[in-house]
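Project outcomes to date are best conveyed with an example. Our students and postdoctoral researchers have been running inverse folding experiments weekly, and each run begins with a structure described purely in C-alpha cells. The record below, which covers 112 residues, was selected by the lab manager from last quarter's runs and is presented without edits.
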C-alpha cells in the first residue's frame, strides 16, 4: 500500500486506540477514528508476539495487507483504522483473512 494509506507512528496509534471506538470478531479487533484531513482511509497493522515468531507475524501482516489492498475500493474514506490480529489468525488462508476483515469492517460500518 502507498505511504499515504499507512499509520506508522506510535502517537497516531495511541490517539486512535484512546478513542475506544472498537469492534471485534474472533480474529481481529478494529479501532476507528474519523480523520477529516485525509481524502482516503489510513490503516495501521498490529500483530503481537502471542501470534508466533517473527516469520509467522510477518506472514500474517502480508495476508492482512493483501486483503486490505483487495478491499480498498469498498472502504469509506475519511477514517483512521488500527487493525489488530488475534492469535486465532494463525493457519487461515488469504480468503479467510479477507472475509474476517470484511466482516469486522461491516461491524464498524466503514465498508460499503
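After processing, the design step wrote out the following sequence:
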Amino acid at each position: 500500500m502507498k505511504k499515504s494509506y499507512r499509520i506508522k507512528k506510535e502517537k497516531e496509534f495511541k490517539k486512535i486506540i484512546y478513542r475506544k471506538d472498537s469492534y471485534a470478531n474472533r480474529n481481529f479487533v478494529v479501532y476507528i477514528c474519523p480523520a477529516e484531513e485525509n481524502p482516503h482511509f489510513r490503516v495501521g497493522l498490529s500483530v503481537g508476539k502471542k501470534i508466533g515468531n517473527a516469520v509467522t507475524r510477518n506472514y500474517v501482516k502480508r495476508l492482512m495487507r493483501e486483503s486490505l489492498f483487495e478491499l480498498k475500493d469498498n472502504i469509506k474514506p475519511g477514517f483512521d483504522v488500527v487493525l489488530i490480529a488475534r492469535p486465532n489468525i494463525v493457519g487461515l488462508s488469504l480468503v479467510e483473512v479477507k472475509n474476517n476483515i470484511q466482516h469486522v469492517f461491516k461491524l464498524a460500518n466503514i465498508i460499503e
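The domain at 3-108 is CATH 3.30.230.10 (Ribosomal Protein S5; domain 2). The chain has a mean pLDDT of 89. The training component of this project remains on track.
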